[in-house]
Amino acid sequence: MLESVYEAVLASTLERRGLSTERQKAVPFEIDGFRFDEGFRLDLLVEGRVVVELKSVEKLAPVHSKQVLTYLRLLNLPVGLLINFGALRLNDGLQRIVNSYRPSRESRLRVNQPS
């Protein structure tokens, strides 16, 4: 199926579970003092904190994870998901992308730290 179909279904499912979602959210950026409001569009932003980029391709390319990382950096967010519905198994098409995550003192989540 098309990515837009997966996007609509996933957004609807998340909203029914009480999570806010924004579809096709514009990601503004600035270069040399010029602001561009419509340069990038991410598929879903969940709860204003998690970028979700959807693909429906046979195999993900390195550029796909770089796309998510670019969104995370521009929005100054720590984490995103890259989901490829074209993979043989959904588990094979799921990637978590982290943008220089630094846990707070209260955080129980450990990322790349010894237990």
Q: Can you describe this structure?
A:
This protein has 115 residues and is an alpha+beta fold. It is built from 2 helices and 5 strands, in the order H-E-E-E-H-E-E. It has helices at residues 3-16, 62-75; strands spanning 21-31, 34-46, 50-55, 79-84, 94-98. The chain has a 5-stranded mixed β-sheet with strand order 1-2-3-4-5. The termini are far apart.
Rg, please?
15 Å
Order of helices and strands: HEEEHEE
User: What is the name of the CATH architecture?
Assistant: Alpha-Beta Complex
- Strand order, sheet with most strands: 1-2-3-4-5
CATH fold descriptor: Lambda Exonuclease, Chain A
Summarize the helices and strands and which ones pair or pack.
Elements (H helix, E strand, L loop, with lengths): L2 H14 L4 E11 L2 E13 L3 E6 L6 H14 L3 E6 L9 E5 L17
Parallel strand pairs: 3-4
Antiparallel strand pairs: 1-2, 2-3, 4-5
Q: TL;DR of this structure?
A:
The chain has 115 residues and is α+β, with helices and mostly antiparallel strands. The chain has helices at residues 3-16, 62-75; strands spanning 21-31, 34-46, 50-55, 79-84, 94-98.
Index terms:
single chain; 115 residues; alpha+beta; Lambda Exonuclease, Chain A; 5-stranded mixed beta sheet; 5 strands; 36% strand; disordered C terminus
